[in-house]
Amino acid sequence: MASVELYSHPALYTRYRAGFCSAAALALLLITALTYVPPLLVAYRSHGFWLKQSAYLEQPTVRFRYEALFVATIGSSPGSFLAWSTFPAFNRLQEDRLRVPLLSTREEDKNQDGKMDQLHFKLELPLQPTEHVVGVQLILLFSYHKPPAHREPRDTSERSSNTELHWVQPHRQKVVFLGRLGYSFRESC
């Protein structure tokens, strides 16, 4: 009758054998299978089997907070600027340099995934015939929320960002600026 060796120790000349259909041989076969098969299945199913490179991409939820600060330089001398903001305290400080523009904004979701992809921001500043804009600074505030599945240890529920433009061609009727959104972290306690 054929048998399988269950255990042997050469120094003590000890050998334990059992038949192929015995409970001990089946237990040895089961333990051997459980030693090798489950780790291979876990590695294969987690897509980590011989993983050389991996990338994790996600799109945060970025929304325009409808808060802006606008400064237009109209000359080279100090104090020759026009300003406006959505913050009333800033507007009170500007006195005669305050100029209220016509503003229209629209957020657009290009790929219909529920997250805004573009902001259309139009600002028209009324000027006197003697005024010429030579520079513009524009700060727009955004809220930024990353899904909680990200592995970042910080609370990233709200962030602020700004976009700035510093140069305008003189005597132009229209200025088009396409910018990228940058953000800064704000830790929450």
Largest sheet: 3 strands, antiparallel
Name the overall outline. Answer: rod-shaped
Strand content: 25-35%
Q: CA-to-CA gap between the ends?
A: 73 Å
The secondary-structure class comes to: alpha+beta
Average pLDDT taken over every residue: 77
Q: What's the arrangement of strands in the largest beta sheet? A: 4-3-7
Helical fraction equals 10-25%
Number of helices: 2
How many discrete structural domains? 2
Output the radius of gyration.
34 Å
Order of helices and strands: EEHEEHEEE
Number of strands: 7
What low-confidence regions span 5 or more consecutive residues with pLDDT below 50?
152-171
Write a concise synopsis of the structure shown.
With 189 residues, this protein is α+β, with helices and mostly antiparallel strands. The protein has helices at 23-45, 88-94, and strands at 3-9, 14-19, 61-73, 81-85, 102-108, 118-124, 135-145.
Task: Walk me through the structure.
By secondary structure, the chain is an alpha+beta fold. It has two domains: 3-45, no CATH class; 57-189, no CATH class. It contains two helices and seven strands, in the order ββαββαβββ. Strands 4-3-7 form a three-stranded antiparallel beta sheet. Strands 1-2 form a two-stranded antiparallel ribbon. Strands 5-6 form a two-stranded antiparallel sheet. The longest helix has 23 residues, at 23-45. The radius of gyration is 34 Å and the shape is rod-shaped. 4% of the residues are buried. The model is unreliable at 152-171 (pLDDT under 50).
